[in-house]
Amino acid sequence: MLHDVPGWVKDAVFYQIFPDRFCKSDRYQAVGNFVDWESLPTRENMFGGNLAGIIDKLSYIAGLGVNALYLCPIFKSNSNHRYHTVDYFEIDPVLGSMKDFETLVEKAHSLGLRVILDGVFNHCSRGFFQFNSVMELGKNSPYTDWFHIHGYPLNAYSGKPNYECWWNLPALPKFNTSTPAVRNFLFSVAEFWTKKGIDGWRLDVPNEIDDDSFWQEFRRRVKKINPHAYIVGEIWDEPSRWLRGDQFDGVMNYPFRRAVLKYLFDKEPCSCLEFCEKLQNAFPEGRFGASMNLLGSHDTTRLVSQPCSDWSRVRLALAILFFTPGALCLYYGDEIGMEGGKDPDNRRSFPWKNLKKLQKSPIYGFICEMLELRRKTPSLRKGSFQVVPRFDGFSILRKFGKSGLELRAFTPKNNDSFDFLISKIR
User: Fold this and answer.
1) 204: annotated active-site residue
2) Residue 383 in contact with residue 400, Cβ under 8 Å?
3) 231, 222 in Cβ contact below 8 A?
């Protein structure tokens, strides 16, 4: 089967948003009490960010030079991250209404921003209707085959769970996707939101639905509605199984991220030669798919909070990112050098009150310049990719036709800062 990756993806730069922490607009008032916007995040506290806030900041996002949005889950849930889905067909009432969502998609498209949603189809919440039915009715529930249940009554709130759940967390019961009704339900969710005008799906832990036929049918259903939809899987390891042309268009490129972090930010870094090999291997020639290349997300420590971080390392890491083939992804706040350690600290609220000051950081202008360079330079989006070790560092070469660019990085001496040059290939 030919692998037809949507053409727009190779030109895409995504801006990932964690909705509870990005922006809270007073135009939408959710019922409930939320922590102050400047509070430090915990695993449970809610800040009250909403879709109206994202709408208010779309011009800011587009002004950076990105051209796509990746939204962490927005469906009804009782967690701040919303990976505990209660209702797959409703916008979380803390975030807003269906009208807000429709306005968001419409305005984003008018600004040249595509929108993909986070699809959590491996597990749901204890509050999901069908699971709640099993908790209430036990073996008499009509939905017992929707889950992997090993005994009754369910130990959903105390003791060891007697049903399968993600990472053994009782709040996240795992779907039984061998049940036809479950499969059809999840496919209908994908169809519903695709018909609402989204441009694709980022799939949460899709490898845990260890069934090629499930994702093949998922792809057929989505592509039938929108042939140009991007389907990208959260795969942390070797991805070739998923990129044969009948499942995903790409995967999140965590091998790339690991290579950059090991070389630039680790207390015991790998050698430059080893880094070049790892970086080249993260983009094997001829592999199907358009990967989503990233240096940070809601699951990872931010660059400026890495063990050996400084501005020179962050700038070089970002330069390398912008020289990679495939789609790119920036995590909200990367452009202003937001700090954040391990989850949940990496999910801090966006500091809008201090934005003008933070835009003077060494990162903001640099990212905007690199975004503009990538937009104007076909070789950075469509060209060949070659990593070349040098006696004093390494080069990344991107060529398209007779033109191209070189990123030349220099190994620091005596603990000096990293430095690099970008020049035309002649």
Assistant:
1) yes
2) yes
3) yes
The two beta strands, 419-424 and 114-119, are: unpaired
Q: How far apart are CA 190 and CA 118, in angstroms?
A: 10
Structure tokens that stand for 23 in this block: 């922006």
The first and second tokens of residue 98, run together, are 């269906």
- Catalytic one among 20, 204, 217, 249? 204
Residues 173, 126 contacting (CB under 8 angstroms)? yes
Measured from the Cβ of residue 350, the count of other Cβ atoms closer than 10 Å reads 23
Could you tell me which residues are beta bridge partners of residue 58? none
**What would the two tokens of residue 318 be?**
């970002």
Closest CA to 202 of 259, 236, 251: 251
Walk along the chain (426 residues) and give the pLDDT tens digit of each residue.
346 789 999 999 999 999 999 999 999 999 999 999 999 999 999 999 999 999 999 999 999 999 999 999 999 999 999 999 999 999 999 999 999 999 999 999 999 999 999 999 999 999 999 999 999 999 999 999 999 999 999 999 998 999 999 999 999 999 999 999 999 999 999 999 999 999 999 999 999 999 999 999 999 999 999 999 999 999 998 888 899 889 999 999 999 999 999 999 999 999 999 999 999 999 987 665 689 999 999 999 999 999 999 999 999 999 999 999 999 999 999 999 999 999 999 999 999 999 999 999 889 999 999 999 999 999 999 999 999 999 999 999 999 998 999 999 998 887 679 999 999 997
As a whole number of angstroms, the distance between CA 303 and CA 338 comes to 9
Side by side, the strands of the sheet bearing 393-400 are 384-390, 393-400, 403-410, 419-424
**Residue 112 · residue 67 · CB < 8 Å:** yes
Query: For residue 81, how far is the Cα from the chain centroid?
Result: 13
Residues in the chain: 426
Active site residue 234: yes
- Long-range interactions of 340-343: CB distance < 8 A, separation 24+: 340/301, 340/302, 340/305, 341/301, 341/302, 341/305, 342/301, 343/43, 343/298, 343/299
CA separation for the pair 333, 347 (Å, rounded): 10
Question: Is 201 within 8 Å of 117 (Cβ atoms)?
Answer: yes
> Which tokens go with 87?
């209702």
Q: Which helix (H) or strand (E) holds 307?
A: none
Rounded Cα distance, 372 and 379, in Å:
13
Q: Which of 316, 345, 340 minimizes the C-alpha distance to 409?
A: 316
Query: Residues 100, 234, 249, 334: which is the catalytic one?
Result: 234
Q: What is the reported pTM? A: 0.97
